[in-house]
Design brief:
The protein contains 8 helices and 6 strands, in the order ααααααββαββββα. By secondary structure, it is α/β, with parallel strands linked by helices. The protein has a 4-stranded mixed beta sheet, with no helix packed on it. The relative contact order is 0.11.
Amino acid sequence: MALSREEIAARYGTALFGYAQDNKVLDTVYDEMMELKKAAVANPKFISVLSDPILSSKDKKSLLTAVEKDFSDEVQGFLNLLLEYNRFADLIDIIDEFALLYDDEKKIAAGTATTATTAVKLDDDQLKRLGDSYAKKYDLNAVRLENKVDPSILGGVVLRVKDCVIDGSVKNRLKKIRAQIIDKN
């Protein structure tokens, strides 16, 4: 029975995380995997070529050797494992799974589940300060927020971090005031 992309990502991401943790190189492997992800997203043909069943294993190996020369032994070994088991098509999903495990270990809230929705775009400093204050309040080491702009909230901020939503928008406040007025009548 074939494994789904999610199962492959979970298995390989967890394996890489455990291996990096056991070898006490978790931060190094994380940094290198994030750089690799940026490069792979910017150059999708890289994954396509290394996943191509027509290209010979020798050619894939020589291409990978040229790319991985600046990476740690742990990342090089992992990339060679992916190549050997024909899992390069799942590289981005594997890296994402690894990053989730890393963030949990380091008490960092990040990813698509961490957003600050505002009526106007926030600059990087404002996002960082907002994330830092949330992290401090909820005993996290860091919160990396993604800014979404929604003019319909009128002002304030709607903060989503994992399963927690803090709605400090003007729209929400007006809705509460309206509900209070209706309840009194």
